[in-house]
Amino acid sequence: MHRSAPPSTSAGGGDTPLPAPPHRSRLPRAARRPRRTIAGLAGLALASSLLAACGSDGKPVLNWYINPDGQATLTQLAADCSTDDYDIEIQLLPTGATDQRTQLARRLAASDSETDLMSLDPVFVPEFANAGWIAEWPEELASQVVDDDVLSGPAETVRWDDGVYAAPQWANTQVLWYRKSLAEAAGLDMSRPVTWSQVIEAAADQGGTVGVQADRYEAYMVWINSLVAGAGGDIVSDTEAGSEAQVDIDSEAGRAAATVVQELAESGAAQPDLSVSREGTSLPFMFDGPGEFMTNWTFVYKNYEPTEGGAFTQEQFDDLGWARYPQTVEGEESRPPVGGIDIAVGEFTENKDWAFEAAQCVSSPEAQQQLAVTDGLMPSRQSVYDAQELVDAFDPSLLSLFQESLEAGAPRPKSAYYNLISGAIQASWHSPTEVDPDTTPAESADYLREVLRSEALL
């Protein structure tokens, strides 16, 4: 069976931020408490579907809201990180990142005390921190969750206003997955950097396809952002100015990005569901007919890995290739997407000290290793990449490519207004079949300015 695609970027439409509480409170330093070590991560544990302040044995319950990626592993982490003082119970968020944000924002805007831990797409950390919805980590704990072992990209996602507001759990990036036989038939040398135009042409010439995420949801913003960054530009800059951020997408870089979208949409390589395509929809095309080139997240390797009674054969898996994300402009370094999950503590939890302790446990190196080996959700810590378990579980060249892509990646705009920025771009660039480099960047820039200044609604 196919694994479900990472929902950290599978979001539909943009919704406006909910109102923030009237003030932010700063956290006292929290004392660390001993906990059980993580062990036996291979098993499964049942999570309660009911919210409760105490478990059946009278212990406090910490509710951990997770996205569906690696659900079985996260459920076991919750069990293994529970202690004699508290139990951690899983509460499942919707599949889409924007829907996840909406559910959490509604709870936290109402000062919900039972939202103890949450798995956040990194782009929403600034908004939640700025609104006072998630707790700032005490200095001595912050120095542990963003120490020198954490890759610079993931470490930066948890910082806001000189504080640390989450613990990096796993880091995600996209690479170009492809059918080796398709690339060979097209005469495309995948040992060298390739452009989007070359990939589209190669696929079309051989009757193959190109898989992307172009539905009106967060992953479409991810694609556009990397295309623009790969042409040397930004969607917005000076994001510290909030609603007065500089809108930059009406630029040569924006037009280069729109050219790629238009080229794919008008080519024979476009998949039939292009306008509603998501991370999971392009997976079946890899071994269908001539195959495909597909930009997608790190989970793909485990998705196609042959298993006893699985959907894919060793012969098919041997025909799977991977390469650096395509260049928007030939000769300019590509800027792969960057994603992942950060673990935040709710500002209104009545068990803040324990929640910090639990957040450290579920984002520990041992936890990251298991998420990578089992689910293909890659670590945010360098030391975990060097672990023998990962070396045994992944091709060494792929591990190197993942790290290279994370270091060279293009993070989405870091702004407390990110949800508005993303929603405006999604709306004005969708459908991909209507994108025009002569008009779309300029029109989207005007619309984004109006949305940021509350002159237009999403």
UniProtKB/TrEMBL annotation:
<dbReference type="Pfam" id="PF01547">
    <property type="entry name" value="SBP_bac_1"/>
</dbReference>
<feature type="region of interest" description="Disordered">
    <location>
        <begin position="1"/>
        <end position="32"/>
    </location>
</feature>
<protein>
    <submittedName>
        <fullName>Extracellular solute-binding protein</fullName>
    </submittedName>
</protein>
<feature type="compositionally biased region" description="Basic residues">
    <location>
        <begin position="23"/>
        <end position="32"/>
    </location>
</feature>
<comment type="similarity">
    <text>Belongs to the bacterial solute-binding protein 1 family.</text>
</comment>
<dbReference type="InterPro" id="IPR050490">
    <property type="entry name" value="Bact_solute-bd_prot1"/>
</dbReference>
<keyword id="KW-0732">Signal</keyword>
<dbReference type="InterPro" id="IPR006059">
    <property type="entry name" value="SBP"/>
</dbReference>
<keyword id="KW-0813">Transport</keyword>
<feature type="compositionally biased region" description="Polar residues">
    <location>
        <begin position="1"/>
        <end position="10"/>
    </location>
</feature>
